Amino acid sequence: MEPISIAMISDFFHPAVGGVENHIYMLSANLIKRGHKVIVITHSHAPDRVGIRWLLPSLKVYYIPFLPIASSATLPNFLTSLPYLRTIFLREHIHLIHAHASLSSIGHEGILHSHLMGIRTVFTDHSLFGFDDAASILTNKLMVGTLKNVDAVICVSHTGRENTVLRGQLFERSEERPDELELRKSVYVIPNSLVAEQFKPCVQPVTDTITIVFLSRLVYRKGIDLLVATAPKICALFPNVNFVVGGDGPKLIELLQMREKYLLQDRIEILGPIRHKDVLSVLSRGSIYMNTSLTESFGIAILEAACAGLYVVSTRVGGVPEILPEDMISFAKPEEGDVVRAISEAIHIVQNGKHDPIHAHERVKNFYNWEDVASRTEKVYDAVLKTPQMELMERIRRTMDLGPFAGPIYTIILLVDCVFFLFLEWWMPRESLHDVHHHWDPEVFKELMEEEERRKTTVH
Amino acid sequence: MIQQDMHEPDDWEKVLWKHHAYPDNYVPRRSFLASLQRNPNFRPYTYWPLVILSCSITQHLAVIFIFLPVFVRLKEHTLDPRSLVCISVLCFFLGYVFWNVFKIPEEATDRHVNHLKILKPSIMMFLALMSLSPVLRTLTAATSSDSIWALSAVLFILNALLADYTVTEVQGAHEGLSSVLSMNAAVSASVVLASRLTTDVSVFALMLFSIQSFALFPMLRRRLQSSSIALWLSVTIGLSILAVWLVSDLSRMVMWLYVAALLFITLIAPAVLIWAQRYKNIIRGPWDVAVPKVN
């Protein structure tokens, strides 16, 4: 397709670390490789990360001065981001915005504003939500309002798509049978991915000891209760099995207490917080990876472990059953007894040499790569740009469909946003904005690098 | 909701690792949302069991509306406080007999040991209340009566809202926080009301009555509920009639309001709940946070 300018918008981006942050970065880098121009818009980080920064390879990041309220998400304020976003979009000649994560309010605001400038919208949902707790009800309601007017939605797994479709009410009246509702055509599934080269298995010397690696945040949702319950039993059943546990969180205390209670200090090693670049070195210490998450949309950590040649044992939750073929992973129900059974099964497989790490790595390398993800995402962009833009009246009609209470509220927000936009057009006319002409020049970067190298060599 | 098209190609699988020829927005008709469950464990309510359950609310309100006229009569000296003390003591023994009759069978073995053990704290309570009543009488002497009426009204509403109306008796476990709060609210309301009375003996009588109605009766009520339906209904009707009769002497309007409230809670509210159940819509699926089962 023709090269276009894309703006990724999310509250979650570098310097914060996590699955969404990494996804945005890798997707942007691969879209740049395919000739597109990509910028990222996110909120500022204390103390001084505000303004414009460049990341390699030529990814421009705008840090807008908004304060995050909780876990790096900003307050949903609908209108206040318009002046910033309008200026950025117009200066950068953006054709399409791609918002990420359903808890990122700046992404929702981007979707709300961009139609005013004729910019198309894509939204990627990264997580699963329930329907019956207060937080889910509120965020789902916010999301429904945004997704009514988005041009395309991407989900990271089939289970994720089913969840997003229900949460965002992505149904519309069928064309042939107007009384029936059918799923929108513009809901895609494009999986996450990983850089397989970063997770090469290390060939270990053959020993009798089997090490089980557990690597995750130590919180309730990751099923630490199951780990705490099963680890002593596994240690008792298999005298040659050790554990390595990495990660930090409120459940660390329970883990330490369990280790103390069963006197397993020499069997269970607790490493504490692990930086992302050290993940491979922790993974390569073991031969079985254990995951006890209670909910998981995609499970990138499982994929990384499988890629590093570990045999995986996981609870059968969310999108996990979709990501690996059955012969690379053992599933357990989220019950103490069944997890012990699955781990025993895995220990037998590994002990009898039925799992070849190098072969597993090659397979995962074939399954997932970022080039593939980028080209599939590009197809979504292409499809979106080929469809006509929605009219304002159509937007109002769709927004009013939200319901007797939410409908009028969102419509008022939509209309006030239009009026605010007209005011900005008058106050800061487009002609007075300075277009961005200076782009990243790989030649200049190369020259600078060479100069730096020369300087280093002369110093020595 | 979604149109069902029954021909689905066999080579499509719900996996992400396979590269297949279908576009990314392909929706498999058969397997899409197949694991969605609507209203799992749905149990439709029926009318009469709900009415029987709502009787515990009716009884609680009846007790409050028996307590209030008793207070008014004490205040206006139309009820002799000594006869109220006698009634309270009688109620206590009657309640104690019922309490023992409906005891859970496995506890019955060491019954005779418990009788004395129960009698001692009861007498202690009796004496403590008696010695405290002069203090309670003058407790809020500096506060205006209007504030007292407002305060006690708020406390009684709190009591009715927070009371524990559940059927099952929790064995050995602590009582819920809300039921403790509820009892405290009612006893505080009685304390502030008692401080409006003129004589020590009437303060004592009212406090004794309040302990009976708000601390001991809820315990008995739960036990009654698990015994026989006939007794349960007759207790409900008896208490309601007593409350209506006591209130009717004071104010006709309050009586009619109270009767309306009773009828609404006992007969109409269950019907509303059954009607509202058709709007119940619980969605369950593989995306829900699993509940770990740990022994």
UniProtKB/TrEMBL annotation, chain A:
Keywords: Glycosyltransferase, Membrane, Transferase, Transmembrane, Transmembrane helix
Transmembrane segments: 402-424
Pfam family of the protein (one): PIGA
GO molecular function, one term: phosphatidylinositol N-acetylglucosaminyltransferase activity
Entry's Gene Ontology BP terms: GPI anchor biosynthetic process
A single Gene Ontology CC term: glycosylphosphatidylinositol-N-acetylglucosaminyltransferase (GPI-GnT) complex
Domain PIGA GPI anchor biosynthesis: 47-133
Domain Glycosyl transferase family intervals: 206-347
Annotated Gene3D superfamilies: Glycogen Phosphorylase B
Transmembrane helix found in the keyword field: yes
Keyword presence, Transmembrane: yes
Task performed by this protein: Catalytic subunit in the complex catalyzing the transfer of N-acetylglucosamine from UDP-N-acetylglucosamine to phosphatidylinositol, the first step of GPI biosynthesis.
PANTHER family per UniProt: N-ACETYLGLUCOSAMINYL-PHOSPHATIDYLINOSITOL BIOSYNTHETIC PROTEIN, PHOSPHATIDYLINOSITOL N-ACETYLGLUCOSAMINYLTRANSFERASE SUBUNIT A
Protein name from the UniProt record: Glycosyltransferase family 4 protein
TrEMBL record, chain B:
Cell location: Membrane
Pathway this chain belongs to: Glycolipid biosynthesis; glycosylphosphatidylinositol-anchor biosynthesis
Any one of the GO BP annotations: GPI anchor biosynthetic process
Membrane topology: Multi-pass membrane protein
Transmembrane regions: 47-72, 84-102, 118-136, 148-167, 187-217, 229-247, 253-276
Pfam families: GPI2 (PF06432)
A cellular-component GO term for this protein: glycosylphosphatidylinositol-N-acetylglucosaminyltransferase (GPI-GnT) complex
Broad class of where this protein is predominantly found: membrane
InterPro entries for this protein: Plno_GlcNAc_GPI2 (IPR009450)
Keyword Nucleotide-binding: no
Alphabetically ordered keywords of this record: Glycosyltransferase, GPI-anchor biosynthesis, Membrane, Transferase, Transmembrane, Transmembrane helix
GO molecular function: glycosyltransferase activity
Family: Belongs to the PIGC family.
Stored PANTHER family: PHOSPHATIDYLINOSITOL GLYCAN, CLASS C, PHOSPHATIDYLINOSITOL N-ACETYLGLUCOSAMINYLTRANSFERASE SUBUNIT C
Name used for this protein in its record: Phosphatidylinositol N-acetylglucosaminyltransferase
Organism: Pholiota conissans
